[in-house]
């Protein structure tokens, strides 16, 4: 569900016409909907009802300060994977005490800054990390709360690049390995054990992988209990999918119900933390692009647009499908089947293939479901400045990231003396 709909035959974000936004900021531009972000966050929050839970929005899905701030105002926690993301959470007014630090390669400076700013917990994912956190916490004379991320070896049945819970993946630790860390952590003076963590992948559209993963996490938690280690929280990660095309991901209610039922069947009420990213931000953003020209060859008809793989890399990186619609309902000009491609010098630079569209040079197109893993994965390839980002709030819109200037691209560079 989102708030991008046609009104008077023009695409709108909430109550604002996309054409008005383009007039003000140009193309390409990302447009986010505050109401959609809030709706998705509340859907997760409500889904758990009275079951003790916390929602830690995964910052990496979309780390724009306005997005983080909107969620912080709802009382969301955050899941971060770098010191840079921590700085964003702080700048956006997020609570560091409700922030979890995940990631396979935490650097000294990142751990230091996280401890200094009172981050809620670390999800440990690699050897030596316990000692690093313990040593820095000792030096700073603070307590560090930790969970260990176990790799439950379940197949999330998603794209291999976003599958993280198989034993061949670099993420998490085997149960044996994790157990060793817990036994060491128990004795470390500046460490407090918080719980167990796992995250099995992204764009997961079935409940079964989650069921299997939780069974393993709960079995493991019982083993910890056998060592008198109390599991105060299960951090179950993120990964719930969204509808890009015809997927039917489980609703947050079904996902939460399954978790609660699995707990209940063991007589447990362990508080649950979840880290949704895509499911909150994905449908809350679109990428607007303008048709530059149309071009035919023997094989295909190309619709060349001003947005490219440097703005939205998901089609090139994961062969991902994004729905593309005309901003003028039913389009303009002759209807045809197009490969929608960008200006970058790579054949992987496409937004969509074989799309039925009625367009002419100058027409506006919206690439839907671009709110997660869109702008954050952007680059300056081909020395293309990053697009503007706008957030719509009811009948108002606000530029939440200005269009990058070409001079900014060269700011840190210099020539030899
Ligand atoms: C990427 C990631 C998430 C968010 O995944 P989504 O598929 O966007 O919900 C949550 N937790 C961790 C540890 C991650 O790496």
Task: Please give a quick description of this structure.
The protein has 417 residues and is α/β, with parallel strands linked by helices. The protein has twelve helices and 20 strands. It has helices at 18-25, 34-47, 65-73, 83-91, 108-116, 129-140, 175-185, 208-226, 252-265, 278-281, 314-318, 406-409, and strands spanning 4-7, 10-13, 16-17, 29-33, 53-58, 77-80, 99-101, 121-124, 144-149, 191-197, 233-235, 272-274, 285-296, 301-305, 324-326, 335-341, 350-358, 364-367, 388-393, 396-401.
Question: Any key phrases for this structure?
Answer:
eight-stranded parallel barrel; 12 helices; nine-stranded mixed sheet; Lyase, Ornithine Decarboxylase, Chain A, domain 1; 2 domains; TIM Barrel; alpha/beta; binds pyridoxal-5'-phosphate; 417 residues
Q: What is the tally of helical segments?
A: 12
Estimate the mean pLDDT confidence.
96
Helix content: 25-40%
Q: What percent of residues are in strands?
A: 15-25%
The total strand number stands at: 20
Bulk shape? globular
**Sheet with the most strands, sense and barrel status:** 9 strands, mixed
Tally of structural domains: 2
Bound molecules: pyridoxal-5'-phosphate
Low-confidence stretches: none
Global Rg: 23 Å
What is the terminal separation in angstroms? 56 Å
